[in-house]
Amino acid sequence: MSEQTALRTRLSLMCGEDVTVVAPSHDDEILLIVPRDRLLSTLTALRQEFASVFVDLFGLDLRPQRGIFQLHLISALDAERVWLHCVIELDDQTANFPGLSDLLPATGWYERVVWEELGIGPHYHPLLRPLRLSPDWPESVYPAQEGFLWRARVPAIEPRFFALEAAPSGVVDYPLGPVRSGIVESGHYTLRTVGEELVDILVQPFYKHRGIEQRAEEVPIEQVPLLAERISGTSAFAHSLAFCQACERLAGIEIPVRARFLRILFAELERLYNHLGYHADLCQATGLSVAQAQFDIWKERVLRLNAHISGHRYLFGVNIPGGLSRDLSTDGQKAIRELVSSLRREMAGLGRQVLASPSHRDRLEHTGVLAPEQAQEYCAVGPVGRASGRDRDLRRDHPYAAYAEMDMEIPVRQEGDALARARICLDEIEQALYLIEQTLAQLRAGAIATPLPPLPCGESSLGWAESARGECLHWILVGEHGRLQRYRVRAASFANWQAFSLAIPGHNILTDFPVIEQSFGLSFAGANG
Asked: The CATH number of 212-528 is which of 1.10.645.10, 3.40.50.150, 3.20.19.10, 1.10.3210.10?
């Protein structure tokens, strides 16, 4: 009996006869068809029996084909290296589902997106109001429903703005954004203070919502990577990689060995410049200008290296379904080795000096604490989650490309403060350098792409990657004429914005806010899609 067959048997015994266990064509995905009234009990049993981890929730409008809506809840079974899809079918007349936010607090934002974009919602939600759509978007227009044309003009209504509840005397609300100095993306905060202490925050990060999921359904599949790269430009390679792997898994093809290793190399270069930029921004927030300049110099060197080896500073256009669009030359390998050697020597001193600087360290320690139990409840991902005790990394737990053949350590800390997040990113710079060296040592000559056959209509697949900010997931459902019927993206920043709000109130003062914001390193664009 295979491991997946044994796992399906365990799931069938645990769930009972009214839950159908389906084995898709992928060994690492299992589908559960769950009746609506069994959803909460099934999720509870999965958490108790398998320590399942919630990763995504979204809906489909299948009324033209089958007369139903579908709700998809995806969980990760890390020990089994399996993705579990719980599918709930809802008829058009009673298209509501049990509220999940009491059982899984992390689902709060996801339920709001399903409600505002698809028109189906939970029976109960503590704060059911629009999240990603603009304040002047009409309530009766649902962009995720079949038949909606993204290019069509949508009539605006009187804007509906939301605010914190009225504050008593002595409490001051500070608006910040959406337009700010420097190159910060558009996003709005309302910071509530009593004296200097931060006591509450309202986050509105969705000024950059571009409807990329819907736009991707209007273009040929081979052009979708161009959109995936623009979900968040600084995670372009990770997003295009996740999408391409979803296509490759569905087509049932193996990409060339050289392409698998090169994907690791490009992914780690993307992680390098992100973490170097992260520390430059963090030093700027604490006023450590010399260290900021040094980190920015090294970030720029990595970006120039990217341009030299790939033709684009941010690695756009490198991933294609089936492999890579361009190879790595001998000259490029030499340039990478030189940079890795120089950067390792530099980081041995720079990282230690930065964390030893009293003015910098004092601003980070015990600031913006995200407790491990909060990170667990809200499913924080990437360095944010690992700084708060969540020992998860898709490169190890659900390996892709050639990561299963790599030797790596995943840094994890328990403190959950800004200093812990800074330490994690420093440690990951060292790990990225080590992974790049291993990749170059194992790189062999060969092809870099395999032709992608037509994808089967009506079939679906999941792709994933561990970006610099954490896990990103891309789910596709293939439609007719070589296009997608449904495209779903769950970026790392969307998962972490909820957790960000928890780190603000309590023992932080107003001047701590820039430090906390930079220590989370979130992307407004990445959360919007």
From this structure: 1.10.645.10
